[in-house]
Amino acid sequence: MKATIEHPLYDTLLLPTEWRYSAAIVGLIRFFDFIEETEGKKLYTYTNNEDKDRYAVYSDICGYIQGILYNSTDLTEERYLLFCENWYDREFQHRNVEALLTHIKKFSQDNINDINSYLNGTSSNTVMKKIFKGIKFDGTNTDTILNLIDEHRLELIKETFRYKTTMYRNFANTNKLMSDTNPHCRLLSYDLDENRKSKAASYYFDTSTFIASDIYEFDFIPFAFTYTKIGFFVNSNTSIEALVKCNNQLKEKMDVEEQIINNRVIRDGDQTKLIKAMLHSDDFLNCDVEIICKDREQESFDTMLIRKQALQRLKKIYDNYNLRYVHKYNYNYWLNVEEELIRCCLNYTYLDKLLEQLLLLSRIDTESRTIQIIQPLIEINAEWKGDSAMKDKIKRARGAGYQIGQVILSKNNGANKAKGYKNKLTSAILAHDRDRVLEILLQLSSTQTATPTSNGTNQIGDISTIYDILDTPDNWSDIAISFTNAMIPSAKKEKEDN
Cα–Cα distances in Å, from 6 out to 55, 57, 66? Predict the structure, then answer.
């Protein structure tokens, strides 16, 4: 919340009582840090416990919350726009022109074409075409172009920032940029077109029930989100220090577009990058975290609550396994095991569907990595389900499947027979037909040679798996998949990061 106060140095207090105010604070602090760096002025401070009794506003929210103090008069349009330019830098076309004109000593024809494409060509936006209408760069009029940019800099920044879909337009109503407080919040999905939507946004057709407070400081919210297709903001508002620290750490990790591991270029999806960034910081692992998401393709903000138990689970998985694997079905459809695992963990759902997909894939495409990755996923799935006896059952099933598979493979036409049995088991598992799975296992038991056990007796290798499936009516598929996957082992050891 925002309050006007009496203070010898500042006139405004902003508190992170809700995510919009928290994000505004992070954006403001980044703005103030820019001003301090460029102008040598510190324009804000944090409140502290000693301030508690000085502001009546604290009593309205039933306790002390750290906030920031500043002067509203310091939030000038010129400073705001120059901060925008600094923050997005080369995302502005005039900044690209400046970079080309100031760093190139001798202009080639390609350089000239690139500059003109920014000025008023196919790559230029509306405001660039307006400023540079009828003007072409010919390799000799550098000063003319740079002077025009300086003369119209604020207009270039404002109009580009306002309408570019990755900037202000992604977050708020473009008509309300740098406006004073409005009757309805300027943010998308909080904004209201009274002529068309007031009844839909009210309760019992009473428009006074629609509440969407608005303050000028909400224009700083875009700078609190990561600059990714899905922008993220961490609402860790236990203190201003924690709020700024967590979002700075997240920004640093999300700015890394790709990694190179074992000479392979690795590009993670936005949510995967988010989780990996959080796993690298103890600040995220010790409490539940509210993440605000803004997808550029959506006109609304989404909230994602990531519980510490889910992050701790993922931390344990990343410490013990490498589950990076992507299979391309076609141009538009990929199976990304790592992303699916993260999604299941955050939503507290099991990996049954993913395991079935991989088992089917191992039948269609006999990639070694597909077969290798199923077993650790079964172990993770069993651990999530909380059945302490499942670990031994899965291990027995894996050993039995391998043993039976080796017996079949050693016979004439063994490879085709092994594939045939694996296909039958896979079809039954995907159909969730336990009786059919047991029937196939009995066929395998009756047709294979008995093997000696440790006590000297002979026992069919997969008989214990049949009993385990009978004793586990709810989670039997994990046992069956473990057995089926082990029947035809991978032919070679592939790199774990495939």
Answer: 9, 12, 17
Q: Give the SS3 label for residue 223.
A: helix
> Within a 10 A sphere around the Cβ of 97, how many other Cβ atoms?
25
Please say if the pLDDT value at position 492 is more than 80: no
Please give the helix or strand (H or E) that residue 2 lies within, else none: strand 2-4
Whether 320 and 288 have beta carbons less than 8 Å apart is answered as no
The residue type at 79: R
Lowest-pLDDT choice from 56-60, 160-164, 300-304 = 56-60
Query: Any bridge partners for residue 290, and if so which?
Result: 305
Q: Which pLDDT score, from 0 to 100, does residue 458 have? A: 40
Place of tokens 């959506």: 298
Tokens of 170: 């992604």
**What's the Rg (C-alpha) of the chain?**
31
Q: How far is CA 127 from CA 159, 160, 166, 273, 368, in A?
A: 7, 7, 16, 35, 55
What's the rounded Cα separation, in Å, for the pair 90 and 181? 31
**Can you tell me which residue has the tokens 């604020």?**
154
441 within 8 A of 466, measured Cβ to Cβ = yes
The token duo for 459 is: 């026992």
Cite the beta strand spans of 270-368 per DSSP E. 289-295, 301-306, 326-330, 333-336
| Angle of the 434-447 helix axis to the 463-471 helix axis, nearest 10 | 160
What CA–CA distance (Å, rounded) separates 485 from 375?
8
CB-based burial, 460-481: b 16+ in 10 Å, e otherwise: bbbebbbebbeebeebbbbbbb
The pLDDT mean for the chain works out to 86
Residue that the structure tokens 């103030």 belong to: 32
Return phi, psi of residue 228, to 5°. -130, 170
For residue 390, give both structure tokens: 């499942």
**Which pair of structure tokens corresponds to residue 46?**
């944090």
d(CA 312, CA 161): 39
pLDDT band at 286, cuts 50/70/90? confident
* Encoded tokens for 396: 């027995």
Q: Is the pLDDT of residue 252 over 60?
A: yes
115-133: per-residue pLDDT in tens? 999 998 888 999 999 999 9
CB 496 within 8 A of CB 324: yes
Contact 135, 145 (CB under 8 A): yes
Neighbours of 57 (CB within 10 A): 17
Residue 403's nearest CA partner among 491, 489, 492, 469 is 489
Which are the contacts of 416, defined by CB distance < 8 A and separation ≥ 6?
none
